[in-house]
Design goal:
Order of helices and strands: HHHHHHHHHHH
Number of helices: 11
Distance between the termini: 61 Å
Structural class: mainly alpha
Strand content: under 5%
Shape: elongated
CATH class of one domain: Mainly Alpha
Largest sheet: none
CATH topology of one domain: Tetracycline Repressor, domain 2
CATH architecture of one domain: Orthogonal Bundle
Radius of gyration: 22 Å
Number of strands: 0
Length: 243
């Protein structure tokens, strides 16, 4: 059985909460085995049994951070406009990072592709869903994968830049400016515009190709796996229009 306190928290929960609090107050250097054991009122061997070592402890803190972020995301109500939903998602992301700078640095500043928490994949899935919604509305100007990478890179970069800047020196318009720039880069002003900057109509073809690929899974019963694969490749080629 788990060791529970009168308040109902397990020793693992107390250890994690203590680590998050120490991280917020003093940064990574403040999270030592001695400090955590004192704050959580447990013996050091309890920490080792629960997390193995300090690296495992930090991995657990990162996972807890992603789950906390998912709770924030889950509280958001869809607006009915996929581009506005992306805008709100960006603001929630930046707001979470600024409210939890130390945890955010662990989540994104020290990310390791070979060791990503399950919750991080769920965050990626949410972003992809937002982008696919824009594609299905006929308003995505680049491929879903590329758009997701562009949005993620810009959003994380903004948060890490703001975190690394003293509060009194931060540009209050940086996040909103970058948000609108990236939205303008990956979306169109309206569904299937007649032009996208070239007289050949290539931009329109690209936008329609992106939209069709976004709904391709809905044709699962009408096409064989091989046919879907070939069509997906063709759509990728059509959507990759040079600037």
């Amino acid at each position: 059985m788990m060791n529970m306190t009168p308040t109902g928290q397990s020793s693992r929960e107390r250890i994690l909460n203590a680590a998050v609090a120490l991280l917020a107050e003093g940064g990574r250097e403040a999270v030592t085995t001695r400090a955590v054991s004192t704050a959580a009122d447990v013996q050091a061997p309890t920490i080792y049994r629960q997390f193995g070592d300090i690296a495992g402890h930090f991995d657990a803190v990162i996972t807890a951070g992603f789950f906390a972020y998912l709770e924030v995301k889950a509280a958001r109500e869809p607006s009915g406009d996929p581009v506005e939903d992306l805008r709100q998602g960006w603001d929630l992301h930046v707001g979470f990072g600024l409210a939890n700078p130390a945890t955010y640095r662990l989540m994104y500043g020290e990310a390791r592709p070979d060791k990503r928490p399950t919750a991080a994949g769920e965050v990626d899935r949410i972003l992809r869903g937002l982008v696919e919604g824009i594609a299905e509305a006929g308003r995505l100007a680049v491929g879903v994968e590329r758009a997701g990478r562009m949005i993620n890179a810009a959003g994380v970069g903004v948060v890490l830049t703001l975190i690394a800047t003293a509060k009194e020196d931060r540009d209050p318009t940086l996040s909103a400016t970058m948000r609108e720039l990236i939205i303008a880069a990956v979306t169109t002003a309206e569904a299937h515009p007649s032009e996208r900057g070239d007289s050949s109509g290539g931009g329109q073809v690209a936008t329609r190709a992106v939209s069709l690929k976004a709904v391709l899974p809905q044709a699962e019963r009408r096409l064989t796996p091989g046919e879907r694969h070939i069509l997906s490749e063709w759509l990728d080629r059509l959507s990759d229009v040079p600037d």
